[in-house]
Design brief:
The structure holds two protein chains of two kinds. Chain A has helices at residues 7-20, 23-27, 31-44, 47-63, 80-91, 96-113, 117-123, 127-153. By secondary structure, chain A is mostly helical. Chain A has two domains: 7-123, no CATH class; 125-155. Chain A is elongated, with a radius of gyration of 25 Å. By secondary structure, chain B is an alpha/beta fold. Chain B has two domains: 18-74 and 103-153 and 201-284 and 459-518, FAD/NAD(P)-binding domain (3-Layer(bba) Sandwich), CATH 3.50.50; 157-187 and 296-370 and 391-445, Cholesterol Oxidase, domain 2 (2-Layer Sandwich), CATH 3.30.410. In chain B, 26% of the residues lie in helices and 21% in strands. Chain B is built from twelve helices and 21 strands. In chain B, the strands form six sheets. In chain B, strands 1, 2, 3, 9, 10, 11, 12 and 21 form an eight-stranded mixed sheet that branches. Chain B has a four-stranded antiparallel sheet with strand order 15-16-13-19. A three-stranded mixed sheet of chain B has the order 4-5-20, with no helix packed on it. In chain B, helix 1 (41-52) links the parallel strand 2 (28-37) and strand 3. Chain B is globular. Classes of the chains: A mainly alpha, B alpha/beta. At the A-B interface, helix 1, helix 3, helix 6, helix 7 and helix 8 of A face helix 1, helix 2, helix 4, helix 6 and helix 8 of B. The structure holds flavin-adenine dinucleotide and iron/sulfur cluster (SF4).
């Protein structure tokens, strides 16, 4: 299914990028792309989990209003230092719900962050180039062996004497 | 029997006899000798053996048919395509255990690491003793293992494919004087591209997708992919077929598919199979359906070295450290892409950035733990939900394993090690492993994952204690078989794929030797 963040959830997630992701991610202007990526991942997770996350993030946002330090503001409107402290309070929260929510949201944001090409380039992580190089070498060096193995996949070797002729027709 | 339209071979992607949502456009009813639900390690093996013997086999797979050309290093896209629930499945417990199942033609073998090990003899002997299984010991199983190894090409790696991370693991084990062995893997000249978990982009890994599935198709089996089986059709206690729906774009339920067959096989893996049986109304007199879930809890350490490692260059898991096998602990180097490392790390913000900046100097080492607790798969609104409580004994074993593995990595030259335990500071030397014992580590602080779920429809001679008989035939049902990791009476302490395939081969022989029961 394709999932889009409700606007309120998107705002909370955007406010959490500087809290969870390394400063470079914000400096590189990746906040929106990371939050988009979270939506992609959420489209693949079980519906119950997805609904829980949306509800949890909404609660996280609203609950800040009763935290004296926030002075009536929602979580996504907190300045950086308070945003950090609010997240930390939930990370160490007394209830498993708070801890599990920050854990799950943190995982989604970190995953999205390190799927951004700009972040991967910083790490010098170039797996596709490596794959192409070794794929070519494999075929050059072992081509004959590989073809023999492919042929063996369909070579007859019955476990028991065939009981009747194998099917040949489709449908 | 309804004739199926020919598959969309014009796109060059789908072989003959594979029918996808692009071709299954209307309701379909088929007849077959055998219908097998799931095309992974168990299902594909059984399908190939029975099709070669001349039976009319239909495989049904909920996932898509992908080809070698579709597999890339894009972790996120591959995870969404190949993993059930985007890889975010969770067993509820303290700690929650994140687990992964494949959902594609070829099942979890498409995304697995390719480690191919026979069931340890002590385990087979335990199954004989505790579950009353006959003809299950090593000499009985020899021919089945050998046959599987021939089919999926189980070999040692070509030496040039061993990457630096694995060399360092071996160096550490050698320095400690610990037993370390080269892994056996199902591969034809594996290129060492280290993409196993996202599909092998070279076709070297002999997953079911490129071995047993094409073999089954060659010998006449048909495969319906993008079809989720909703229930097994029963007539009294006799299974007579299956009913499901095409999984359309965006997971929307599409046309109906019914396959009537003389033998119905559930091969959906240890999480989905008990749910399929339960929602179909299959009752086990043992009351054990969905129980007995074991999962080889796994934790990972992230070790930073001074030298470049570039762990993505070289085969996934070239070696296994077997020194502590007797305690149920195996160690290996398991490179993981940055996004997954970041995701599973306890760090965030600038600390996460610092950890990740060292990614190209990192060795990720993991551990498999043979567990003593068992959990349960419950079926809630037709969907499986796993529950698993890590035993204190196993939690202690994980702590000991992490300490040992950290010692090994320091002996190999690691500068720092991040443990999978929240609240334990980064280890900076071998002496720091003491920190792991300084205070009890609560289970809730452990980041535990698994990819080996087993045992939820276990075999056993006694129908009051086991769900199936020694060949996977469900006790007190007729013509209904289980053929996947659900069958294991106990965890096996090594990677399970080859055991599943060998048991499937053994079950195929049983069916062929007793055909009159299934005709
Ligand atoms: C990331 C990863 C790495 C691993 N590494 C190794 C390794 O190196 N060595 C090893 O030995 N083992 C490894 N394993 C484990 C091994 O791959 C599995 O234990 C094995 O594939 C399980 O076989 P199975 O037949 O039980 O199920 P699977 O192979 O998972 O196949 C089950 C199939 O059934 C389908 N299915 C489920 N429900 C339905 C339904 N209702 N209708 C239609 N289809 C359905 C699923 O989509 C799936 O394709 C790994 C697993 C993972 C996930
Ligand atoms: S390491 Fe080998 S088996 Fe794994 S994906 Fe690369 S070529 Fe395939």
């Amino acid at each position: 299914m394709s999932y889009q963040h409700p606007p309120a959830v998107r705002r909370v997630l955007e406010s959490l990028v500087p809290v969870v992701c390394p400063p470079e991610a914000v400096a590189l202007g990746l906040t929106a792309a990371i939050v988009d990526h979270v939506a992609l991942t959420m489209s693949a997770v079980p519906p119950l989990f997805r609904r829980g996350l949306v509800l949890g993030l909404t609660t996280y946002d609203l609950a800040a209003m009763v935290w004296p330090a926030a002075r009536g503001r929602r979580a996504h409107r907190l300045p950086p230092e308070l945003a950090e402290r609010w997240f930390e309070r939930w990370e160490r929260g007394l209830t498993p719900v708070e801890r599990e929510l920050t854990h799950a949201v943190g995982q989604l944001l970190k995953f999205g962050c390190y799927e951004q090409p700009a972040m991967l380039a910083r790490l010098g992580y170039t797996p596709q180039a490596w794959i192409e190089q070794v794929t070519r070498r494999r075929l050059q060096v072992y081509g004959d062996d590989i073809r023999r193995a492919e042929a063996a996949i369909v070579a007859p070797d019955p476990l028991r004497p065939p009981v009747r002729r194998p099917r040949t027709e489709v449908g | 029997m309804v004739a199926l339209p020919r598959p969309a071979v014009a796109q060059g992607a789908v072989p003959d006899r594979v029918f996808t949502r692009d071709t299954l456009r209307g309701d379909t009813v088929l007849d077959a000798d055998v219908v097998i639900v799931g095309s992974g390690a168990g299902g594909a093996t059984l399908a190939a053996e029975l099709a070669e013997a001349g039976l009319d086999v239909v495989m049904i797979e909920e996932g898509r048919y992908w080809t070698t050309r579709d597999f890339t290093a894009q972790a996120s896209a591959m995870t969404r395509q190949l993993y059930r629930d985007g890889g975010a499945s969770m067993a509820i417990g303290d700690p929650p255990v994140m687990f992964q199942e494949g959902r594609a033609v070829g099942g979890s073998t498409v995304i697995n690491g390719g480690m191919s090990w026979r069931t340890p003899e002590r385990i087979l002997e335990r199954w004989r003793r505790e579950a009353g299984l006959e003809h299950i010991e090593a000499p009985d199983m020899e021919a089945h293992f050998a046959r599987v190894e021939r089919r999926i090409h189980v070999r040692h790696q070509d030496p040039e494919t061993v990457g630096r991370d694995n060399e360092l693991l071996k160096r550490g084990a050698d320095a400690k004087g610990w037993k370390v062995i080269p892994n056996l893997r199902n591969q034809v000249h594996c290129a060492g591209s280290n993409n196993c978990a996202f599909g092998c982009p070279t076709g070297a890994k002999q997953s079911a997708l490129v071995s047993y599935v094409p073999r089954a198709l060659h010998f006449g089996a048909r495969l319906l992919s993008d079809v989720k089986v909703e229930r097994i059709l029963l007539h009294g206690k006799r299974a007579i077929g299956v009913a499901g729906r095409v999984v359309g774009e965006g997971e929307r339920p599409g046309p109906r598919v019914t396959v009537r067959a003389k033998l119905v096989v559930a091969a959906c893996g240890a999480i989905q199979t008990p749910a399929l049986l339960a929602r179909s109304g299959v009752r086990s007199p043992s009351g054990r359906l969905g129980h007995n879930l074991s999962l080889h809890p796994n934790v990972k350490l992230v070790a930073t070295f001074d030298e470049p490692v570039r762990g993505w260059e070289g085969v996934h898991q070239a070696y296994q450290v077997r020194e502590f096998e007797g305690e149920g602990l195996l160690f290996a180097a398991v490179n993981i892409p940055p996004a997954v490392i970041a995701m599973t790390s306890h760090e965030r913000g600038a600390a996460l950035g610092a950890l990740m900046d060292a990614y190209d100097r990192t060795v990720i080492a993991g551990m498999l733990c043979e567990d003593t607790a068992t959990g349960r798969v419950r079926t809630i609104n037709g969907r499986p939900q796993a529950f698993y409580q890590l035993a204190q004994f196993d939690a202690d074993k994980l702590v000991r394993g992490v300490a040992l593995l950290a010692e090994l990595l320091f002996a190999a030259g690691a500068r720092s090690i991040i443990t999978p335990f929240a609240g334990v500071p980064t280890l900076r030397s071998g002496d720091d492993t003491r920190l792991l014992y300084a205070h009890p580590i609560p289970r809730s602080a452990m980041e535990v994952v698994t990819v080996h779920m087993m045992g939820t429809a276990a075999m056993g001679a006694d129908r009051t204690r086991a769900v199936t008989d020694g060949h996977g035939l469900v006790h007190d049902a007729e013509r209904l078989m289980v053929c996947d990791a659900s069958l294991f009476p106990t965890p096996i302490g090594v990677n399970p794929m080859e055991t599943i395939m060998a048991l499937a081969t053994r079950s195929a022989a049983h069916v062929l030797d007793n055909l009159e029961r299934f005709s």
